[in-house]
């Protein structure tokens, strides 16, 4: 027997095809509570989309430890070889809206949630090891430059290149963005990176700095520009479809987690700021160390509940993992959970996809859409005399020595924004250099010659050939 349709309050519905009216041609009666509930809910089905990373796809999986790194961290997720931890990974494009195509030239989000026994651990990264900015104060301006023109409502390359002409710190990420890796062939064939510098803390309360790399075990595959444009029109959900269908076929995608480690002393003496998000740590000096394997092996049952409502924040770290003086990371520690409180509500972490698999003991109460018993009869203040949860100093991080004047320090002064971008350019084959410079010139062809020249001067400082090729393709001397 089929189930009976009901209202949200569980009241059986006798008719779902025709509204209650006064006669066949008469007006609709306000007492048709099923109609009113149906329309009212329909009007409220959409929640605010993410300002960035609006369109995405996700899947569940497991992380398995393959190598011992307990000398660096006491995090329980790494406690022994063979240990498995459940995880959820959301991929996304960055600048486009929810209806945008999966194959646009754009960084890709790589947001990972580990459901550890010590609480959720979120690594909210991208498919690139660097970013366009190093200071969070500039982040809103950068994103605005990539979004739609406030007058016309469409995207305008003048805004993008005008901003970048005054932001040479973006050159490293720009070089990646306009290279072949700027359009991955779906989500399975790209790497993921924590990008920021984080910290590991071991059982002796010793700290090291760490970067996270997730290397695609499927290999790297990118889309030619013509194919990406074709797919944008014929299959704009290409990347999400590819991921979902591969998991349904039991072709489970996997990534190898590797880390780079830097000691506090090495960081103090290093030739550039190791917490600068526009730069990478040289692998020759800080080699990749194997840690484990991430496998995605289960698709969500409901896209809205599990992908759209998934919420990530780099502020979610378990004991044994910590932060760093990375300025962009420090800004994201506030911005990400604040965005989710606005988008989903203050109790967003009680949603099933976001709720930790470990025990939660807090004094947070009330607020919109509380999804559980709201703490029951237990009071909500601390310290208290009724045996409520208390702090545990054994989880305290070691002190971090800081020095310097409190000021708005210029992070661009005496900072080399060109060498690493140039090094990346020089690593490319002739064919890759040709495609990179053609992609850049293609987006610059409609902007003024003055703005073209300003940006080309930046590229020339990375490598004379880099800027020279772009200039030649734009017909400039």
TrEMBL record:
<protein>
    <recommendedName>
        <fullName>Catalase</fullName>
        <ecNumber>1.11.1.6</ecNumber>
    </recommendedName>
</protein>
<dbReference type="InterPro" id="IPR018028">
    <property type="entry name" value="Catalase"/>
</dbReference>
<comment type="similarity">
    <text>Belongs to the catalase family.</text>
</comment>
<dbReference type="InterPro" id="IPR040333">
    <property type="entry name" value="Catalase_3"/>
</dbReference>
<dbReference type="InterPro" id="IPR024708">
    <property type="entry name" value="Catalase_AS"/>
</dbReference>
<keyword id="KW-0408">Iron</keyword>
<keyword id="KW-0560">Oxidoreductase</keyword>
<dbReference type="GO" id="GO:0046872">
    <property type="term" value="F:metal ion binding"/>
</dbReference>
<dbReference type="InterPro" id="IPR011614">
    <property type="entry name" value="Catalase_core"/>
</dbReference>
<dbReference type="InterPro" id="IPR024711">
    <property type="entry name" value="Catalase_clade1/3"/>
</dbReference>
<feature type="region of interest" description="Disordered">
    <location>
        <begin position="1"/>
        <end position="24"/>
    </location>
</feature>
<dbReference type="InterPro" id="IPR020835">
    <property type="entry name" value="Catalase_sf"/>
</dbReference>
<feature type="active site">
    <location>
        <position position="53"/>
    </location>
</feature>
<keyword id="KW-0575">Peroxidase</keyword>
<keyword id="KW-0479">Metal-binding</keyword>
<dbReference type="InterPro" id="IPR002226">
    <property type="entry name" value="Catalase_haem_BS"/>
</dbReference>
<feature type="binding site" description="axial binding residue">
    <location>
        <position position="336"/>
    </location>
    <ligand>
        <name>heme</name>
    </ligand>
</feature>
<feature type="active site">
    <location>
        <position position="126"/>
    </location>
</feature>
<dbReference type="Pfam" id="PF00199">
    <property type="entry name" value="Catalase"/>
</dbReference>
<dbReference type="GO" id="GO:0042744">
    <property type="term" value="P:hydrogen peroxide catabolic process"/>
</dbReference>
<dbReference type="Pfam" id="PF06628">
    <property type="entry name" value="Catalase-rel"/>
</dbReference>
<keyword id="KW-0376">Hydrogen peroxide</keyword>
<dbReference type="GO" id="GO:0005737">
    <property type="term" value="C:cytoplasm"/>
</dbReference>
<keyword id="KW-0349">Heme</keyword>
<dbReference type="GO" id="GO:0020037">
    <property type="term" value="F:heme binding"/>
</dbReference>
<dbReference type="GO" id="GO:0042542">
    <property type="term" value="P:response to hydrogen peroxide"/>
</dbReference>
<feature type="compositionally biased region" description="Polar residues">
    <location>
        <begin position="1"/>
        <end position="22"/>
    </location>
</feature>
<feature type="domain" description="Catalase core">
    <location>
        <begin position="6"/>
        <end position="390"/>
    </location>
</feature>
<dbReference type="GO" id="GO:0004096">
    <property type="term" value="F:catalase activity"/>
</dbReference>
<dbReference type="InterPro" id="IPR010582">
    <property type="entry name" value="Catalase_immune_responsive"/>
</dbReference>
């Amino acid at each position: 027997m089929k189930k009976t349709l009901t209202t949200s309050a569980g009241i059986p519905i006798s008719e779902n095809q025709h509204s209650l009216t006064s006669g066949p041609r008469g007006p609709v009666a306000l007492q048709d509570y099923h109609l009113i509930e149906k329309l009212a809910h329909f009007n409220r089905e959409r929640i605010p989309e993410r300002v960035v990373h609006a369109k995405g796809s996700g899947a569940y999986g497991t992380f398995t430890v393959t190598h011992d790194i307990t000398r660096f961290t006491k995090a329980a997720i790494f406690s022994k070889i063979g240990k498995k931890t459940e995880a959820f990974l959301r991929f996304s494009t960055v600048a486009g809206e929810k209806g945008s195509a999966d194959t646009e030239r754009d960084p890709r989000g790589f947001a990972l949630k580990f459901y550890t026994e010590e609480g959720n651990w979120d690594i909210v990264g991208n498919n690139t090891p660097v970013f366009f900015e190093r200071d969070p104060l500039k982040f809103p301006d950068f994103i605005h430059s990539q979004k739609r023109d406030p007058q016309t409502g469409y995207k305008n390359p003048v805004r993008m290149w005008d901003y970048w002409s005054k932001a040479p710190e973006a050159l490293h990420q720009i070089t990646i963005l306009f290279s072949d890796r700027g359009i991955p062939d779906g989500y399975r064939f790209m790497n993921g990176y924590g990008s920021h510098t984080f910290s590991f803390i071991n059982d002796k309360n010793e700290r090291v700095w760490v970067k996270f790399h997730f290397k695609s075990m499927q290999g790297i595959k990118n889309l030619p520009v013509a194919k990406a444009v074709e797919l944008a029109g014929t299959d704009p959900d290409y990347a999400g479809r590819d991921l979902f269908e591969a998991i349904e076929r039991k072709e489970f995608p996997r990534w190898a987690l590797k880390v780079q480690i830097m000691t506090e002393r090495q960081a103090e003496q290093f030739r550039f700021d190791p917490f600068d998000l526009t730069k990478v740590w040289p692998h020759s000096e800080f080699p990749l160390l194997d840690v484990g394997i991430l496998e995605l092996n289960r698709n969500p049952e409901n896209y809205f509940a599990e992908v759209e409502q998934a919420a990530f924040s780099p502020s979610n770290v378990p004991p044994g993992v910590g932060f760093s003086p990375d300025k962009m990371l420090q800004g994201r520690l506030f911005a990400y959970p604040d965005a989710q409180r606005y988008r989903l509500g203050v109790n967003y972490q009680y949603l099933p996809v976001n709720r930790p698999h470990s025990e939660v003991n807090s004094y947070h109460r009330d607020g919109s859409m509380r999804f559980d018993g709201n703490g029951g009869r237990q009071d909500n203040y601390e310290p208290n005399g009724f045996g409520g949860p208390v702090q545990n100093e054994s989880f305290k991080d070691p002190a971090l020595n800081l020095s310097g004047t409190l000021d708005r320090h210029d992070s661009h002064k005496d900072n080399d924004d060109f060498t690493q971008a140039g090094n990346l350019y020089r690593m490319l084959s002739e064919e890759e250099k040709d495609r990179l410079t053609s992609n850049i010139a293609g987006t610059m062809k409609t902007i003024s010659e003055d703005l073209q020249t300003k940006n080309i001067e930046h590229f020339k400082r990375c490598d004379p050939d880099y800027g020279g090729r772009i200039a030649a393709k734009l017909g400039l001397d």
